[in-house]
Amino acid sequence: MMYKKGEVSYLPLPLPDRVQLEPQASLAAAEANLAYMRKRHSVRQFSDCPVPEAVISACIQAAASAPSGANHQPWHFAAIANPAMKARIRDAAEEEERAFYTGGGGDEWLAALEPIGTGAEKPHLTDAPWLIVVFAQRYGVTEDGARYKNYYVPESVGIATGFLIAAIHQAGLVCLEHTPNPMKFLPEMCGRGAEEKAVMILPVGYPALGATVPAVAKRKKPLDQVMTLFL
Predict the structure, then answer these.
(1) With 80 as the cut, is the pLDDT of residue 58 above it?
(2) Shortest CA distance to 220 belongs to which of 74, 38, 62?
């Protein structure tokens, strides 16, 4: 538990690590990272090749190193390899998706998804060797049961999830971003409290031999549409 009542003093520490590079080395590192991140793809077809638990744990540790509001770290990651649990999640997801794709999503949303090639069937939720369920802790609970406020929860959990996706890619794996709506059974199934809400499920593993990605996914906005410089 990061928050403890009464611990309100500030204690500065010398910067533990310095990773500063000279300008040319900095540019080279940034460009190398850009080139590698451009190789990251959201994949829906997974191999049945197993992934060691230690790899998943290391990726989650990287995610948990993310910055957060007041350092409350309002997240939890449930790593699921259990076939029965994965099957239950898939059944619930497909029930929700069938309602969505038969009109619940609305014409505009369904049209926007058409180039992605998605549908109500979610085999990746059972094919992937791991599912990582990302929980957002809407408020904290002290050891004596008292509630305390967490700050910037969506922002903090979003940053941590970005760290996780990058770590998965760095480990030579692929994942798919699946939003579990509503799937209210997930906290109980994963042993989490009422204060936590599942916000993302990441199927994680190696891509299947014949894995594909939608062509439209390779179309990214150019830099001049996503960045404004003020010099």
Answers:
(1) yes
(2) 38
Q: What is the DSSP letter of 182?
A: S
Dist. CA 1–CA 18, nearest whole Å = 28
Residue 102 is classified by DSSP as I
CB distance 85 to 179 below 8 Å: no
First and final C-alpha spacing in the chain: 43
Helices (H), the chain: 23-37, 53-63, 83-99, 107-113, 124-127, 153-170, 186-189, 223-226
Which class for 139: exposed (0-12), middle (13-18), buried (19 or more C-beta within 10 A)? middle
What CATH code would you report for 41-213?
A: 3.40.109.10
Of 132-141, 180-189, 192-201, 202-211, least confident by mean pLDDT is 180-189
Q: Compute the distance between CA of residue 203 and CA of residue 211 in angstroms, rounded to an integer.
A: 14
Does the pLDDT at position 229 exceed 80? yes
Rounded to a whole number of angstroms, the CA Rg of the chain reads 20
Pair 58, 191: CB distance under 8 Å? no
| pTM value surpassing 0.90 | yes
